[in-house]
Amino acid sequence: TEACLSAIEGAGKLNAFVHDTSEIARRQAEVADSRIKDGDAPSMCGIPLGIKDLFCIKGVPSQAASNILGGFKPEYESTVTTQLFGAGAVMLGKLNMDEFAMGSSNETSCYGNAVNPWRRGNDDEALTPGGSSGGSASAVSADLCLGATGTDTGGSIRQPAAFTGITGIKPTYGRCSRWGIVAFASSLDQAGPMTKDVRDAAIMLEAMCGHDPKDSTSADLAVPNFEAMLTGDIKGKTIGIPREYRMDGMSDEIDALWAEGRKMLEDAGAKVVDISLPHTKYALPAYYVIAPAEASSNLARYDGVRYGHRAKLSQGDGITEMYEKTRAEGFGDEVKRRVMVGTYVLSAGFYDAYYNRARKVRTLIKKDFEDVFAQGVDAILTPATPSAAFPLGMEVEDPVQMYLNDVFTVTVNLAGLPGISVPAGTDKQGLPLGLQLIGRPWEEGDLLNCAYALE
Ligand code: GLN
């Protein structure tokens, strides 16, 4: 804990940590010390973590990187962090992210963006750590903490993990409780660990997940010992390579990385087969209808009354002016864009044409996966991202270009499946690249084991 706290102090330029909780950390570390001395150390005992700002921590600023939650200190604690602290973990601080987890570069944060610790060769240009869990990725990659919590609605664990050379898993929808995590798109949001390697991910995931009566979508299933499942033996497993993920204009480097991953899995004894997921091309448009629709509804609660910020009002202003001024001041541009898109696609005249259509597409995408799993495929291998980390400021002016970053990751959220990104080498300029494995529902243990074979 002390080593991490001093590393954080020296790494201000990364802007990864946005709220310091070192006092809490030191107290937790002391308790962990005595538990270790008593021979009563649980799985995460004394492990220093960073916590994404989307998680509500009792008495600690929890702002989802938004000005509208300025000054908000929850009275309650998220289930995931309760479980992590119960397992002995130490909280170093809150981590930077895109505002309300909307973004792929960490540039929508009210704190300013986190920075990727990696550079292109000798080039000094600052790169994005990815988003929305950019602070988590940057902090783990730069050794400021041993692991971090992330959340993934459309790729926000896997894309930043790929951009910073770390491991990140989004579990099956319902594995981790969403209680106490600020909601973005409730039917897609899942928490997961971001760690140095697959073994750490297995240990941390086990501590994070489990049934929670406070979240009606949390699954009442036993949590396996994921670490014990890491045998590295994938003989007899069938891995699918989906042809629709070979996008037009895909770079040779990403193509070569994918082929290399395929070979590694074959060498480890897996059977690799070509598969088809025919509705893949509709995933991104469907996601960018469904996610904003749910977000517009979830974000209606920020009204200047219940949480955080309230605008200064003028003489004669009524409740409508209070809502309008508070939301105009409190939300950033990307959040406003999503609220407008979401409200539009849910409006009476357009609901069927957009929202309902997107839900039907979502069902087809889910069915594509069910079909290949029914044919005996155990896991699916794809690139995690279409490129390596890009320079900050490059795509922020063009939202559609930014949305294209999520092309390989959103299908997994729409289908509710587990997906993991593992580091898989570097591009010509020395930047990390990631491969993604997608697993069967509830089979995170097998998925982690396949990923282990890629390490
Ligand atoms: N980049 C995607 C978005 O902006 C995904 C975000 C996420 O997974 N939280 O919606």
UniProtKB/TrEMBL annotation:
Could you name the Gene Ontology cellular component terms for this entry?
A: glutamyl-tRNA(Gln) amidotransferase complex
Q: Which is an annotated Pfam family here?
A: Amidase
SUPFAM superfamilies noted in UniProt = Amidase signature (AS) enzymes
Query: What Gene3D superfamilies does its record include?
Result: Amidase signature (AS) domain (3.90.1300.10)
| Top-level enzyme category | ligase
A single GO BP term for this record reads: translation
What is the stated purpose of this protein?
Answer: Allows the formation of correctly charged Gln-tRNA(Gln) through the transamidation of misacylated Glu-tRNA(Gln) in organisms which lack glutaminyl-tRNA synthetase. The reaction takes place in the presence of glutamine and ATP through an activated gamma-phospho-Glu-tRNA(Gln).
- State the PROSITE patterns in the record: AMIDASES (PS00571)
Reactions performed catalytically? L-glutamyl-tRNA(Gln) + L-glutamine + ATP + H2O = L-glutaminyl-tRNA(Gln) + L-glutamate + ADP + phosphate + H(+)
**Under what name is this protein listed?**
Glutamyl-tRNA(Gln) amidotransferase subunit A
Q: What is its EC number?
A: 6.3.5.7
Q: Which gene encodes it?
A: gatA
What is its quaternary makeup? Heterotrimer of A, B and C subunits.
Q: Which UniProt keywords apply?
A: ATP-binding, Ligase, Nucleotide-binding, Protein biosynthesis, Transferase
Q: Which organism is it from?
A: Allosediminivita pacifica
Cite the active-site annotation: 52, 132, 156
Example GO molecular function term? Answer: ATP binding
Q: Which residues form the Amidase domain?
A: 1-448
What family is reported? Belongs to the amidase family. GatA subfamily.
